[in-house]
Amino acid sequence: PIIACWMGETQVLAARNALEEAGIPALGMPEAAVELYNHISAHYQNQKLLLQTPEGAANPARQEIEGARTLIDAMLLEGHKALSEMASKALLHAFRIPVTPTVVARTPTESLLLAEQIGFPVAMKIDSPDIVRKSEAGGVRLNIGSAPTVRNAFEEILATVRAKYPQARLNGISIEPYLARRNGRELMIRIMRDPVFGPVITFGPGGNDVEVFGDRAVALPPLNHVLAQDLIRATHASLLLGEFRGMPPVSMAALEEVLLNISEMVCELPWIQELDLNPLIVDEHGAIAADARILIADTPAGADRYAHMAIHPYPSHLIQEWALADGQVITIRPIRPEDAEMEQDFIKRLSDESKHFRFMDSLRELTQAMLVRFTQIDYDREMALIATIPGDKRKEKQIGVARYVRHADGESAEFALVVADEWQKHGMGRKLMSQLIDIARQKGYRTMVGDVLAINSRMLNLVSRLGFSIHPHPDDPAVKRVVRPLRD
User: Fold this and answer.
1) Cα distances (Å, whole numbers) of residue 141 to 7, 43, 323
2) At 293, is the pLDDT very low, low, confident or very high (cuts 50, 70, 90)?
3) Of 160, 211, 163, 207, which Cα lies nearest the Cα of 184?
4) What is the pLDDT of residues 33-57, one digit of tens each?
5) pTM of the model
6) What is d(CA 363, CA 80) in angstroms, rounded to the nearest whole number?
7) Where are the beta strands (DSSP E) in 262-352?
8) Which of 149, 267, 279, 359 gives the lowest tally of CB atoms within 10 Å of its CB?
9) Of 93, 101, 396, 146, whose CA–CA distance to 265 is shortest?
10) What percentage of the chain's residues is helix, strand, coil (to nearest 5)?
11) Any alpha helices (H) in 139-187, and if so which ranges?
12) Could you give phi then psi for residue 271, rounded to 5 degrees?
């Protein structure tokens, strides 16, 4: 883009008008031109980020995640909303987030035994559901290197905290290894639940002065590597993560992995209301959470898997493989933005008759607007399942697609289906539609509807076998309206 800056009034007015008539912005001050350029740059960056489709959990039913859900259920059953540091770290560990092992001592003697088992030096912190800022409460002692010091620290912490917060519930003193990482940088990752946007991830520098500097970047989960890198770069703290004052650069891969695992955690555990990792210590060897705090709450019964999210992650749990009688394996999965080229090639390969039945028009290929609309979908309000087989150069080849879009009433969805000509009469349409109907039913829709050309006898026979009733179209005698209830 060209941006002009012509300072002045009368002498440059004609030139400025000529530029504006030609569609070239002509600004009066260089600051405004720089700001406009910044907005353009941000727009292009945001457009790239919108194309990102983060994965959901690769295997959301695995044992670790089920264990995390069981722990949350047990805590809520006992009336706990603020998890202890030990319980918080157990949840983090279930999602492959490195944490320092933590145990809780309830007596001075118990603290001595646990410190000896962990090994010196240790860190000791107050364990209380009522105290958020442990350091400000006088509830933290670091780098404790001997048994006598452990006993003294235990009694000092309890006395100090009780004096400042006499009403606070005190579970004991948590003991963990003291992390002395020479090249470590302290960072903070925080999750807050916004009433409109749901979980929001905040990233920035950590430590006791985190509130003072206000250096934070914010993102909506789910994240992928591109979005995690963008979140890190958006903070001034990112400048300290490279080579700095003789320290080697930190392991960015480890930091990104923590952000991705935190993102997966809030996607899969809708009970989480707040999460605070501070400090998260990162150096050239990796990342580890030294302290953690999690608040949980009940969720509505029967809620959709990702109802708490503003942006639904890629529904990888819907991917399945279907083996034909001849051994051919077909993958059925939700569509992605990066499938645009494959979708266009699929439409081009359709016969004129199949294109006419699908689009009710003499379409040769998808326009760019249609391609974006078909591949960049909101998984909350619509779904597009594609069937693929291995193609040339290890690429997938699309052989069918079934999709629905939610109607404005929020209770019904309109479907469309098309199968590659050479794959018709293989049960492909029935398989795609059956899975699509199941997804729509799970979403809570009452009805699925569609418009089918009256001359498309194969589609009418298929939907009839799937339980659709066939009716005259209210506006076009050449079209039939097919309807299927999704609830008993």
Assistant:
1) 62, 48, 60
2) very high
3) 207
4) 999 999 999 888 887 776 676 665 5
5) 0.78
6) 59
7) 272-283, 286-289, 292-296, 320-323, 329-334
8) 359
9) 93
10) 40, 25, 35
11) 147-164
12) -75, -20
